[in-house]
Amino acid sequence: MRMIIQSVTRKVVAGFFSASLCLCGLTGSFAQSKGDVLIKNATVLTASRGTLEGTDVLVQKGKITRIGKNISAPPGVQVIDATGKFVSPGIIDCHSHSMLDAINEGAFSVTSMTNVRDMLDPNDISIYRALAGGVTGALLLHGSANSIGGQSATVKFKWGHPVEDFPIADAPPGIKFALGENVRRTTFTPPPGTPLRYPRTRQGVMEVIRDAFVRARDYKQSLDDFKAGKTRIPPRKDLELEPIVEILEGKRLVHAHGYRSDEHLNLMLLADEFGFRVATLQHALEVFKIAPEAAKRGTGASIFVDNWGYKLEAYDSIPYNAYIMWKNGVVVSINSDSDERMRRLNIDAAKVMKYGGVPEQDSLQMITLNPAKQLGIDKRTGSVDVGKDGDLVIWNAHPFSVYSRVEMTLVEGEILFDRAKDAQMRTDMAKEREALEKLDVNRAPGAGGTPPRVPTERRRGDRDEAEGVIDNE
Amino acid sequence: MKSKLLLLSFALLCLFGVSVSAQSYAITNAKIITVSGATIEKGTIVVRNGLIEAVGANVATPADAQVFDATGLTVYPGFFDALTTLGLQTRPATPPTGGPGGGPQAAAAATAAQPTSNSNYPAGLRPEDMTSDDLRAGEAQFEAARNAGFTSVLTIGRTGIFNGQSAVINLAGESVSAMTVRSPYALHISYTTLGQVYPQSLLGTFSAIRQMFYDAKRLEEWQKAYAANPKGMKRPDNDRSLEALFPYIGGKAPVVFNANTEREIIRSIDLIRAFKLSGVIAGGQEAWKVADRLKANNIPVLLSLNFPKRTTAAAPDADPESIETLRLRAETPKGAGKLAAAGVKFAFQSGGATTLADFFTNAGKAVENGLSKDAAIRAMTLGAAEVLGVDSRLGSIEAGKIANLAIVKGDVFSKDRFVAQVIVDGKVFEQKEPAKPAPGRGSGSGNPTGTAPPTTTSAPEPANVSGGYTITIDVPGSPIQATLNFTQSGSTLTGTFTTDAGASPIRDGRVTANGFSFATTVPYGGQNIDITVQGSIAGNQISGSLDSPLGAVPFSGTKVP
């Protein structure tokens, strides 16, 4: 490990160390790093202005303040020698269900009153693993069981911080829409006694969405009438319709799960009718068929590169989907929809170069700057540029190489993953475990007791697919 | 000799539960832990008309007094269990979630099984439900709790999101009105789901709570405006469910959130702040992790003494337990000390522990782990009374307060403690020192044994357990509805364990003459956890306990006909 920390405020490092050691979220004892760091002599993949060789990046108070050669460290700034290493912007996953204690509210087809912000678990180990894969931010979405699902959260993975530090305060709010099989609930066996839920057809899904917008328009009118003094009784504060009013006002971004291009096109036409823009088409395996229509409306697409065929509506795709959309001027991002796949999005981006030959920087943008644009946070993150947040990844090799791995991940200049420290943590945790196992409370009962835990598959289901078989549907 | 005779005659009287309230009762030569003041090493307490008339080292014994010589015994204020289900009717598992067969008929049957209500909200979202309506009369039901030294409890059922409004009761009195000390105390909220109707996920639970609070706020304003001038204004609804929330919004009365994990507590604090509630956390297993926030927002904790412990047998081929589980068990007993150090107010509660003895034993563990003995006693007496808003009447041994006393032989935190007498509202209850004290829960909800069914060499005929059962798992703070479907073949048990989160096949299922056991893996709180279940069946009633890495909880339910 050649990453040498030359000058450090010992306290900050010690504080960080103990915080990350305890995998539970520490709210009280976290020694707040100032987010000051100088990365020396790296190959910097800016994702906006090409590749800079032998370049230093200075981060102060969480923001990138200088990029150039031979920058000297201001006093108290930690210096990281990145000679021979690559620096990229932090990866942003534009479709994730990480950190969430619950994903789908299935009672209604419209559950816009729910908000995944309520479900964030800042101690989810997936966060740390995502950081180890270079991911610094994500769009956390409600599941796809509903034509209009819950409100989403755009977060930075500030591992070790209290939960309120995760959502990006100035990110535009978002909401999940969904089309097709999952919403129709026709591939889903409801628990006995549960009545079937409307809609059961694709046309019914469109009806439900249109109805919600009509109701939201009426609701907005009732609010305006009250404000204007036309009515005396204050209208009910309607948590279901408020976010839909925000969509109509252009304040809330729509992220629409779907597979068939006819459905995605239908939704964009409905958006035209109600005067809003769909921010992203999610999964969007067939959007190559309607790329000009999406590009014209400024609607982005967030896709898997080469994963399809896992259900009927997901059959018609090609690995050149990203390339064709890119060629047509659609803002494309590559997402994971999976805590596991999230850790290797760099390889997914590399595939875009293979299938169709998207240039290197444009491919890298599909996991950095493009998702930032889709989420409305590109002013603060997504590329290595002065003025942006210090969300940076230090790789041992080019991130598009299968031999590359993350050495360090920084969020706003704070080192939240460090491979060298991780090795030390493993040793320390083994010692801690040994001590804990000796305690009476952790000893097996002398006689009797319940049978031991049987190992189970570790993957987490119950994501988009409400019935919970496969993550990435 | 004389005192012994008196004691004997008194014991005889007490067998018949004779009230001594008309006469005075003097406890002499006792060590008195007043809690509110200094400990009296040797003193007298005079009880009359259900109240403490006098207490002190030099208090004269009244001429009419029955005297109890408490030499060698210690008198404490009667102990509080700050969250129980004591006194509540045991109902069949509710709400039914359809059951096998399903369809509209099952749904209609489910509706019919609900207590009738004209509420606009489904069962589980009815804050107007009053514990005092569900309490049953009679004091015999409290015997086990009294024998453990408890004289007052906070009680409420734990079904639904809005559990309803709780009551502080004394553990004596033949009528509900006589046992009630304060009703309602608080509105209680659990982060659970409603199964068949919205909300079916935690996501919806939070939205449903918020929407009802907003609707109540609006209704209150509307009703006020209408009362002031109804002309030309649409008449507001008379909505009992929303009206029940009026006193809680703005903090006129407390709202108790059943929350154990750090994030549940933080979410509760967010709700408390958003609606300016007078918040209380119940459970609080990880409350120490957010002690600073609790302190800053002046939120007390009804702290569970049901500490997690390992129940799984050792096996060389088993996966190691997660370090989070190992830490949780090690850290939980330290929580009380940390809350005390941070200045957070707390009261102890049994947290659904299957044996009441654990309450004092685990309070002792809290003392071993950094809590002062005085603070521990306070958390089960005056401190609890303060949180429950009854400290002007209960919680300490002071003249004028209600005569709730526990007279204890031996250290209250030690295993050999013995509660010789309990006085509730001036009424004396005595217990003979048994050879082996084993106070049970005694609340009539089936007594989970917590031990494996004994294996015998003669292999008696296994019980017949085949069939479907709907059960309520009494997870403190968020009871879970589940369905068991058993298929039995000799002593082998197969089938499924179904919750809102889905169905899991059971494994290692065994049936003995005394009951059944099985293991399964269930989705819970966003992850899969392994649980083991043991229970027994009597008639159409099923009960037992469910063990997980997070601790053991009881369950009970009924057979699906």
What does this protein look like?
The complex is a heterodimer of chains A (473) and B (561). In chain A, the strands form 2 sheets. In chain A, strands 1, 2, 3, 4, 5, 14, 15 and 16 form an 8-stranded mixed sheet that branches. Chain A is an alpha/beta fold and 473 residues long. Chain B is α+β, with helices and mostly antiparallel strands and 561 residues long. Helix content of chain B is 23%, strand content 30%. Chain B contains 14 helices and 27 strands. In chain B, a hairpin with a 2-residue loop joins strand 26 and strand 27. The longest helix of chain B has 27 residues. The N terminus of chain B is likely disordered.
Question: Total number of β-strand segments of chain B?
Answer: 27
User: Structural class of the helix and strand makeup of chain A?
Assistant: alpha/beta
Assembly annotation? heterodimer
**How would you sum up the major sheet of chain A?**
8 strands, mixed
How would you spell out the order of helices and strands of chain A?
A: HEEEEEEHEEEHHHEHEHEHEHHHEEEH
**Coarse morphology of chain A:** globular
Average of per-residue pLDDT values of chain A: 89
Radius of gyration of chain B: 25 Å
Distance between the termini of chain B: 61 Å
Number of helical segments of chain B?
14
Low-pLDDT residue spans of chain A = 1-32, 461-473
Given the helix and strand composition of chain B, which structural class is it?
alpha+beta
Q: Which range best describes the helical content of chain A: under 10%, 10-25%, 25-40%, 40-55%, 55-70% or over 70%?
A: 25-40%
* Uncertain runs of chain B: 1-21, 92-113, 437-459
Largest sheet report of chain B: 8 strands, mixed
Mean pLDDT of chain B: 85
Could you tell me how far the N terminus lies from the C terminus of chain A, measured between alpha carbons in angstroms?
Answer: 39 Å
